[in-house]
Design a protein that fits this description.
The structure is a single chain. 39% of the residues lie in helices and 15% in strands.
């Protein structure tokens, strides 16, 4: 049994709550194994099925994980501790490159579009029973999807990209199912997987997106879904290339029952073309978010997919929020329809900073990734040491632990706030942080 902590309860919910209390107050440590089902059932005087149900609740909440014949153990980082908490606060005087925000100077003004949407709402207020998707937004979004070669499909609107991905996964998967995920990958999504009771199967990523070999291995190992970031992958900046898209389509063609989810959150800030993988599986969805190009506070995403998937997403949405504000939908339709930003110009601005930093690092012998978007990923031998040395030099970076499962250590630098004059000093600081001077000899 466990040393120093006594699990209590007669019902499954009570036993699960007892374990969660132990995790919260430190009585149960990350990685600590729980007693076998029958052993704990005997101690508590309950049926083994009751303990099994308690463990199932804990798995679905992301508190424990099952390690095959080695039994169940407390997760190394329970879902209650979001990955965003893995990091450092930038003290006064330190440049913060860790938050991942876009450059406010590149965002369009929202007031004119909001005013037009509000005036329209005054003339014809959206009421209960109306369509969930604004017709103008649906038309603009569908036309853009068509230009990008995305297969035909209905349109839905959700409260951001992560909300869309969660709804798509929940529409088809059940707790215990495995999902192939990019590693390193988006911290919010890596938190979402265990929160839904799903199991992540990591897939290695390079500059051109998920590697075909590991992707196929994950699908053969039982992954029922694959989530791919089309462009501006967070944290590495990867973008799916033509050759990689062809290879991944071949992998998916061999697994037509896979649920494919494509995340195009880089829309509006990337000039590389979208190369959709959709259409090679029976169930698919492509999610497009305006957060990076038009402002995070719009809190919206447009998705398309096969009719069954979109219908399930909208059906469940009706039982919750009902719909996303038509005021915001019409605002986005105006921004997209009238070309409020020049995506090519925005992409060039981010590319100048990103490519400039990568080139400056290369001159100092430091390898880095960043093919698209606003982030640069720098492999490091020791994340903790690198983060500390960068802070001391006046720069706050995001630790790679926030984004990693099995992949090697690294740090993420967001280039949005950088000017040309910042690149050399930052590259000097990164080079020093990655390769600290050898310890002084005392003999």
């Amino acid at each position: 049994m466990l040393e120093g902590y006594r699990i209590e309860g007669r019902r499954a919910a009570e036993i699960a709550a007892s374990v969660e209390r132990g995790v919260a107050d430190g009585g149960l440590s990350p990685g600590q194994h729980l007693p076998p089902l029958r052993e704990l059932a005997a101690v508590l005087g309950v049926n083994a099925n009751t303990v099994a149900a308690a463990y199932r609740i804990l798995r679905e909440r992301g508190v424990i994980e099952t390690a095959g014949r080695r039994g169940s153990r407390i997760r190394s980082r329970p879902v209650s501790a979001p990955r965003e908490e893995i990091g450092v606060e930038a003290p006064p005087g330190v440049r913060d490159l860790a938050k991942g925000n876009p450059d406010p100077a590149l965002l369009p003004p929202l007031a004119p579009a909001l005013a037009r949407a509000a005036a329209r709402a005054d003339r014809s207020p959206p009421l209960y029973g109306g369509p969930p998707v604004d017709e103008e937004l649906a038309a603009v979004a569908r036309a853009a999807f068509d230009r990008d070669g995305v297969p035909a499909g209905p349109i839905a609107v959700t409260s951001g990209a992560l909300d869309a991905i969660e709804r798509v996964l929940a529409a088809h998967l059940r707790p215990g199912d495995a999902v192939a995920v990019e590693d390193p990958g988006w911290a919010g999504f890596l938190d979402l997987i265990p929160a839904l009771g799903l199991r992540p199967l990591p897939v290695a990523v390079d500059d051109e997106g998920p590697l075909p070999g590991p992707t196929g291995h994950a699908l053969r190992a039982g992954a029922r879904a694959l989530v791919v970031t089309a462009r501006a992958q967070n944290p590495t900046g990867a973008a799916v290339s033509p050759a990689r898209a062809e290879a991944l389509r071949a992998v998916l063609a061999a697994h037509p029952g896979t649920l494919l989810v494509e995340d195009d959150h880089g829309h509006g800030v990337v000039d590389l073309p979208l190369l959709p993988l959709s259409g090679h599986t029976s169930r698919w969805a492509l999610v497009r978010s305006p957060a990076k190009g038009y402002g995070p506070d719009l809190r919206m995403a447009v998705l398309t997919g096969d009719p069954v998937t979109v219908d399930r997403v909208q059906g469940r949405q009706r039982l919750g929020p009902g719909w996303v504000s038509h005021l915001l939908q019409r605002t986005l339709a105006t921004l997209w329809g009238e070309g409020a930003i020049d995506p090519a110009e925005v992409a060039r601005s981010y590319a100048a900073r990103r490519d400039g930093l990568i080139a400056a690092l290369a001159e100092r012998g430091v390898a880095a990734l960043g093919r698209s978007g606003m982030n640069v990923w720098v492999p490091v031998p020791d994340e903790t040491g690198a983060i500390a040395r960068l802070l001391h030099a006046g720069w706050a970076a995001a630790p790679g632990a926030r984004f990693r499962l099995d992949s090697p250590p690294g740090v993420r630098l967001t280039v949005s706030s950088l000017a040309g004059a910042d690149l050399a000093p930052l590259a000097d600081a990164v080079a020093a942080a990655v390769r600290p001077p050898a310890a002084r000899r005392t003999d």
